[in-house]
Write a structure and sequence with these properties.
The complex is a heterodimer of chains A (510) and B (341). Chain A is built from 19 helices and 22 strands. Classes of the chains: A alpha/beta (510), B mainly alpha (341).
Chain lengths: 510, 341
């Protein structure tokens, strides 16, 4: 099935690559073929399709369980990222990893590239060498500049230059455009074209469909750990790519009969009203209403401003402008304490560092929010508190040896239930959730969804952000799609499709 | 074993190694040193550790909240001078003692708690600075002179007996009970654990983090002040010498008692055992005629072992043996989904 093979065979092939993490089969048989040096190979797939795992295998961060990887015809297996680098495979990950207090030159050549003389590191020679590497990207940054003073897109370029300095012949860019503006994306593309001319193959990951056609030469589509489509990108268009990612089962996903119309929430009073909300550079002029009993989803790519919007409403991130109302009363976010007193709850995305105190007991975690509402010196009303804990825990079917067990001893799903229970016992008017089912198993996910529906049925307004579009479609009454800090669509889940969400989230309007 | 005993045994899980060593040392010294297990010696042993004990109780709260406090030795000495100076004004001694403890709380809360909790400055820098500054203040305020304190009430702090129990030991018990109650049975106590366990989670749960920290450092200051008062009572004078090692010894005792340096786990019950460990070791070795330097060597080694044991999991092993099936964290699915995307 190899296509376009040049005389010497493809540059890099992965065949039938499998990878398991415990019980999760992340890669079931992924194939990827980079036909020759100097191509841009696009890798796409929804969240959870196995993309990151495949990149991990490719860059030496993970070792595959089965399947083969061949580089220039030779079978390879990378023990670690250094080994991959030694074979010319370098990866620039999504989060920039530069040393902000070192210079551009030092960052580019960090590790082994610094030019050493008997007298120590030669700055002049190092800087000259760094300039040379940067010029391969068509850049003329001053190698003496401090990296911390550069713009984020420039820091990313420094990282790319660092990968090049190790003589990379395959350069993996994991969502390099996710935090760039249009102009900056064009700058990146210019650099990528320069590299193509020099024979460097690029593996390019992005969720933004239009730009894939602009820069890509060939494509691999992953779904559920399998490669479901591959070939020259000219064989595809936006719709066929999305269909490959989502599968042909559109609309087939079991959806409980719901929708705001069916549940009669369309006329319920508005519990949370947001107008003209601006927060830093992340959220621009967002307006939304969530009615009592309604579950509203926030869809969008990572970096679209979903998390920042929720944080701004909860008051844990400063907002620069905006008018908010909770249950009809004006509400000015000033911090979590004020938000909680105003009847807002917030389940943060990272339960380990933000949502829970792992060393404390289930009971203490569940009653932690209430703590701030009562007298500091009085003994906690243990009996009453424990009663509430017991009820919530039972309704979510939490498996815990006892309420005194430390939360850290529970499974991921159990922890997430405790994190949710903590807010349910305070019976908030508005409940904000950021990635409420990230990293939990299927059963726990279903139970959390059921719990959220019950909460909404009880009159709470639920605003939930998730990067899993099928989750939003299954759970919510309406879905708002965000793109670069703005709400670009407001869809009823009765009619919306995953493909539509994906297109809108990728900035593809039409 | 009966249920309460089992429960008590579980409660020792964080400091079991040190507890076993304390008991072993006690038995060993009782057998080898005839004068060790006498009531006079035991009273002495405990009373001598009263300053460390009281300071360590306050230090436990600071460590639970995720910090530490280097300035407690200096605060103790400063409170002694405060006591001597204010007594000269002729105020009633009882009121002066109360003022002195409040003075210590104010020093801790304002000079340590405020910069750490409200301004977010580094604990190390802040408490190093207050330690240095207060040490200077002690000498300036006292003109480097000792003050005889002859007030009978103050003297009783260090020397009186209550039903045959030395006053310092009574104070130790009171401080312990107060600290234990606050730690275990109040919302403030739980806020303290939450802040030490995860500042972000605490803040997002609506806990007032700065106020919690100010109060934690105020409590440590009050404890330091009380230990300074006990010292004055025992010596009969306020001495302008700062015990530079008091803070570090207290931290050592807290860590020996199983409180995590990173905060959020442990408690004053373990600290009590940690202080007793140091006290028994010190007393037993000096009765045996072993140079006191060995005491430091042994304390250091045990400290590493105690912390390492927790890290390497042999604490876990001791904990889970016999009595309780260990609950292990199946962390896998967390890792997976993060990577599987």
């Amino acid at each position: 099935m190899s296509h376009l093979g040049t005389g010497s065979g493809p540059l890099l092939t992965l065949q039938g690559v499998e990878k398991r993490f415990g019980g999760v089969h992340a890669l079931k048989g992924a194939d990827l073929t980079i036909t020759r040096p100097g191509v841009v190979h696009v890798l796409i797939g929804e969240n959870g399709s196995g993309k990151s795992t495949l990149l991990g295998v490719l860059s030496g961060q993970l070792r595959h369980d089965a399947g083969s990887m061949r580089l220039r015809g030779r079978t390879v297996r990378f023990a670690d990222p250094v080994a991959a680098l030694g074979q010319g495979v370098a990866m620039v990950s999504q989060e920039t990893a530069v040393a902000p207090d070192l210079t551009v030159g030092e960052n580019v050549l960090l590790g082994r590239g610094l030019v050493r003389r008997w007298s120590g590191i030669s700055r002049a020679a190092t800087n000259a060498k760094a300039s040379e590497v940067l010029s391969r990207l068509g850049l003329d940054y001053d190698p003496r500049a401090r990296v911390g003073d550069l713009r984020p897109d420039q820091r990313q370029m420094v990282e790319i230059a660092r990968a090049l300095s190790a003589d990379a012949s395959v350069l993996i860019l994991d969502e390099p455009t996710s935090s760039l503006t249009d102009d900056e994306v064009q700058g990146l593309f210019r650099a990528i074209r320069q590299l193509k001319e020099q024979g460097v193959a690029i593996v390019f990951v992005s969720h933004r469909i239009p730009e894939l056609f602009e820069i890509g030469d060939e494509v691999t589509v992953l779904r559920d750990g399998n490669t479901v489509a591959q070939g020259p990108i000219s064989d595809f268009d936006g719709r066929s790519l999305v269909r490959a990612m989502v599968g042909d089962v559109e609309g087939l996903a079991s959806r409980p009969a719901g929708g705001s119309a069916a549940r009669g929430t369309a006329t319920a009073p508005v519990a949370l009203k947001v107008a003209g909300l601006v927060a830093d550079d992340a959220v621009h002029d967002v307006g939304l209403d969530v009615r009592r009993g309604e579950i509203v989803g926030l869809a969008g790519l990572v970096g679209a401003g979903r998390s920042e919007l929720l944080e701004a409403v909860f008051g844990s991130r400063p907002l620069s402008a905006g008018h908010l109302e909770v249950a009809g009363r004006p509400y000015v976010p000033s911090g979590p304490r004020h938000a909680i007193r105003s009847g807002i709850g917030f389940l943060p995305p990272d339960r380990k560092s933000q949502g829970l105190v792992l060393g404390m007991s289930v009971g203490s975690n569940v009653t932690m929010v209430q703590t701030s509402r009562r007298s500091r010196w009085s003994p906690p009303r243990r009996a009453a508190a424990m009663q509430a804990v017991a009820e919530v825990v039972a309704s979510m079917r939490l498996k815990t040896p006892s309420h005194e067990a430390p939360v850290g001893a529970l499974s991921g799903g159990g922890q997430q239930k405790v994190g949710l229970a903590k807010w349910l016992v305070c019976e908030p008017c508005v409940l904000l959730l950021d990635e409420p089912t990230r990293g939990v198993d299927v059963t726990a996910k279903a139970e959390i969804h059921a719990q959220l529906r019950r909460v909404a049925a009880g009159g709470t307004a639920v605003l939930v952000s998730s990067s899993e579009n099928d989750e939003l479609l299954g759970l919510c009454d309406r879905v708002l799609v965000m793109f670069r800090g703005r709400v670009v669509a407001d869809l009823s889940t009765e009619t919306a499709t995953e493909a539509e969400l994906l297109r809108l989230a990728g900035g593809h309007t039409s | 074993m009966s249920a309460p005993l089992v429960h008590l045994w579980h409660a020792t899980s964080r400091f079991r190694l040190v507890l076993v060593l304390v008991i072993a040392m006690f038995i060993l010294f009782s057998v080898s040193q005839p004068e060790f297990a006498t009531s006079t010696n035991v009273k002495n042993l405990v009373a001598n550790s009263s300053m460390l004990w009281v300071v360590a109780m306050g230090m436990t709260f600071v460590l639970l909240s995720g910090g530490f406090d280097l300035s407690v030795g200096a605060t103790a000495a400063l409170t002694g001078i405060f006591l001597a100076k204010v007594l000269e004004t002729g105020l009633p001694a009882g009121l002066v003692l109360l003022l002195a403890v409040l003075f210590g709380a104010a020093v801790g809360g304002l000079l340590n708690g405020f910069p750490v909790g409200r301004l977010g400055l580094s604990v190390f820098v802040v408490t190093l600075a207050t330690m240095t500054g207060i040490t200077g203040a002690v000498n300036l305020w006292s003109d480097s002179q000792s003050f005889l304190v002859t007030d009978p009430l103050v003297a009783r702090l260090g020397t009186a007996d209550v039903l045959g129990v030395p006053m310092p030991i009574c104070l130790m018990v009171v401080v312990f009970l107060v600290a234990f109650y606050v730690q275990t049975f109040t919302y403030f106590g739980r806020d303290m654990y939450a802040v030490g366990g995860s500042v972000t989670a605490a803040r997002l749960s609506g806990i007032h983090v700065p106020r919690t920290l100010v109060m934690v450092y105020a409590f440590a200051g009050a404890c330091a002040a009380l230990s300074g008062l006990i010292a004055v009572g025992r010596v009969g004078a306020a001495v302008p010498t700062v015990d530079g090692t008091l803070a570090l010894q207290a931290i050592a005792a807290v860590l020996l008692g199983g409180t995590a340096l990173t905060g959020g786990a442990g408690g004053v019950n373990g600290t009590a055992i940690g202080v007793l460990f140091i006290a028994v070791l010190q007393n037993g070795l000096s009765l045996a005629g072993v140079a006191s330097d060995w005491q430091n060597v042994v304390t250091g080694v045990i400290l590493i072992l105690a912390v390492m044991g927790d890290r390497l999991g042999f604490g876990e092993l001791m904990r889970s043996s016999l009595l309780r099936p260990a609950i292990r964290t199946p962390d896998e699915n967390v890792l997976t989904t993060k990577e599987a995307q």
